[in-house]
């Protein structure tokens, strides 16, 4: 099978959210010694974009998005496993940024946060998803540990929104506020709220949040 | 007579601790999702945008049968201990056989019947009026009175406090306990002020955590055994310890627990068909796991939190038809609009929701507006219109096919703006806070729209 | 108006707005250095030859060091990672306005607890407590009845249901809540059966979480405002929102709050520092937990007891410091290493009771046995020994120096066995579950040890 045909198969497997097939094709690609950068760009990322578009247009719903994510993950692991250290560094450097995502303390609603984590991954971010109901101090400490670019906080309930503010308060008190881009979102939040608590960004829905995340990271890199 | 719930409480609790272990991800993607896909295919379930309020009984029965299979197969996931709670067919049948299709809420002269409704039922819906939203601390009382004084209200749910004495309320913190008790006391006092001391006060929205919710139970100043209370579920088909704790408390203290769930259209349940199936399954879960007498059901769009689109009105219509034909369940249909108060669009949306729900066999819980996330943004006028249209449809003995045509007519007026609707105004901009009456602007708008709807053939009272 | 509550809203606000610090930094950079500083500055020194000192200036120094420590360290809220800090004036305001006495129970079963002074001739209150020992549902009512029928008991504590309806009462789970309700229901039933329906009961130990604790409050079948409700201090000088939620609920429902505090000797501090921490914990109880009184059980980190030489020194000085410098009402809660039906536990209980009573404890809160961790290994006999000996020491007008001598004579009988004490027997082995009478064997041991104490100068009434 030609190089391009293999890459195309990988792409299709991701669009078809077929984890087993994705892993299998990735193994063939490693055996065929194809440039992994090319595979990631033309196979994985391009498949991810199609999935992302289908999700936008409501052709795919959340389960398809999550399953495609798992297929991507499986393929990436196989490809990364076959890389030299040098290549791996090169790959790492191409990460758009590192994002910590969490549903804040007291809140059990994490579907929106799951969508965001997946879309950020699809769009080239390294994502550390801390789960739901995460303690504010824990969020800050993990962000520092991973040297995250972005802290993305989700809250659905009105009584859990103050925990978003609490994370920002802690960052300020620890004098590390400038090190992170803090984005907030979730059902009960709004742009007004984000401004009130001094967040760097807010988006109504996950795909917009991803665009915003890219912009904010880019802006920060430019200084 | 009260029999079930509770259904074998200790057996349920034991099952929570001993069910099969399952990760949440596996539950969502490897259990729920494939089962939904195969059931939709097996029963050939299809959403038809032209049949928002379908008149097809076999569709309703197919949905019920598919949802029955779904729930038996999938069960409920308890997030606190990662275990699935599963039931035998005979157990659910036993619980359903003995579950009450009629209950009384509130006390004394303000006591009201809340019952299961049939499709095209000639009995009026039980109406709970609720802004479903946070409010400024200082307007809590007039805001609550505005809802309590509505004659159609069989019960009221007050707005939610998000500060107390100026301090933000964080869930799980002592501020939440303090605010919840303040909420309960002010709510009781407001009901007395409007002369309805025994009315069912749905209690207490400010209390998110189990501790705060339990702390407001007090027969003198707080939530009484005659009030309705919530045992929410988590999307989709999930529960946790904190919610089960509330349930155990309500059954031991007294109280009329209702389940609360809003399957997300576009989320794990997928499109309209899957959302309806999950919605029906949630009602079975309400009886077996939440152990509740009634349900508040609000399927919503996962991005914009409304349920007045074609797909979602279909979801709730077919859900209620399926439930009416096959179960004794008492359920209230919760409205979520995209537009905010004092706009023509919110009134159209309210009318469409009230009409589609009532004719399909639902009771009414009206109505969250402006995607349910802007403080102070909901008023009794939208809620009133939704309920009035519901009442009108009963008085005019509307059939499903009549309702379908009328709903399509109303939807055409706002469909293009869904996802980008006007925010409208806040309660204090729509109501005089001293006299607690609506502004002339909104009242004129309300009367105008009501007339316009009447001219289209949409009945109201 | 009496304190507590002391300015609730202001306290709640402090847990949201106080200075931010990680828990690790609070422990290592704030608490530990400050303990070291005050122990040095106030020159506090333990003397093994004097387990019950008669030195008033030492008690005064310990009080001052405790106040200094509390004001400089504050209280750490683990839910928000914030320190809640108080000023000297605020503390004084609360102490000055602190109530004179508290009432527990209702009707004929009502009791009053008041502060006492060192070597006070007035008798202390008595609480009979199986503390936190695990218990089966089957034996719960009988065990509680055995405690409740004791004539000396002003109030009782209750054990913890290990399982209810077959499920472990795991915290935050619905089984915990069910356990809390059953615990309260059964305790009320026991009180009615012994004819003390209004007796104050310490409720509800099975309910650890705020939600379960609050759910067990019910004026008809559950915990009443006249009962004993507890809000813990997290060791050392810490609190969290779940505990503050309980406190707020108890205050708003008109219940007295007891602060539950247990400084650990051997954790963050030595014996002197732990004594100072004990005073600071009482101040936290007043300012943060909003407690009307304290249940105080300093313990050794390994032996989980407070009946050793240095722990008795700590208990004695804590109460001397409290009694001569404040009106804070505190119950001295004994923790014995040995289990029921052993001579050792009888000695431990007797010493703990007399040291506490003569040093000025307002209440004798007796006594956990077998390190409080063995299933159903507790009986009212240990509590009875602690309270009878304490009350009799008071009645005999013993001075601290007299007690010091008795302690020095008795301690060598068990000191060597602290790390290797006999487990003793279970409630079921010590008591007839039908008649609720103690076994002949245990009655004999009890009588023997009592006779020894009598020879040493304790003039028992009966």
Largest interface: B-C, 36 and 39 residues
| CATH architecture annotation of chain B | Alpha-Beta Barrel
Give the overall pLDDT of chain A as a whole number. 88
Strand proportion of chain A, as a percent range, falls in 5-15%
Radius of gyration of chain A: 18 Å
Number of helices of chain B: 15
Unreliable spans of chain A: none
Rg value of chain B: 21 Å
Helix % of chain B is 40-55%
CATH architecture of the largest domain in chain A: 3-Layer(aba) Sandwich
Oligomer: heterotrimer
Helix- and strand-based class of chain B? alpha/beta
Instruction: Give the beta-strand count of chain B.
Output: 21
Q: Write out the CATH superfamily name of chain B.
A: Monomethylamine methyltransferase MtmB
Proportion of helical residues of chain A: 55-70%
Number of helices of chain A: 10
3D structure, described in words:
The complex is a heterotrimer of chains A (223), B (461) and C (462). Chain A is α/β, with parallel strands linked by helices. Chain A folds into 2 domains: 3-92, Methyltransferase, Methionine Synthase (B12-binding Domains), Chain A, domain 1 (Orthogonal Bundle); 95-222, Rossmann fold, CATH 3.40.50. Chain A has helices spanning 3-15, 19-31, 36-56, 62-81, 85-93, 111-122, 136-145, 161-173, 191-197, 206-222; strands at 97-103, 125-129, 150-154, 181-185, 201-202. Chain A has a 5-stranded parallel β-sheet, with helices on both faces. In chain A, strand 4 (181-185), helix 9 (191-197) and strand 5 (201-202) form a beta-alpha-beta unit. In chain A, helix 1 (3-15) runs antiparallel to helix 4, helix 2 packs parallel to helix 4 (62-81) and helix 6 (111-122) crosses helix 10 (206-222). The mean pLDDT of chain A is 88. By secondary structure, chain B is α/β, with parallel strands linked by helices. Chain B has one domain (102-456): TIM Barrel (Alpha-Beta Barrel), CATH 3.20.20. Chain B contains 15 helices and 21 strands. Chain C is of the alpha/beta class and 462 residues long. Chain C has one domain (102-455): Alpha-Beta Barrel (TIM Barrel), CATH 3.20.20. Chain C contains 15 helices and 19 strands. In chain C, a hairpin with a 6-residue loop joins strand 3 and strand 4 (111-113). In chain C, helix 2 crosses helix 9 (271-287). Chain C is globular and about 60 Å long. The termini of chain C are far apart. The model of chain C has no long low-confidence stretch (mean pLDDT 95). Chains in contact: A-B, A-C, B-C. Chain A binds chain B through residues 58, 61-63, 66-67, 70, 105-109, 111-112, 157-163, 165-166, 187-190, 204-205, and chain B through 25, 28-29, 32-33, 79, 134, 160, 162, 168-172, 176, 206, 208-209, 234-235, 240, 242, 264, 266-271, 274, 302-305, 372-374.
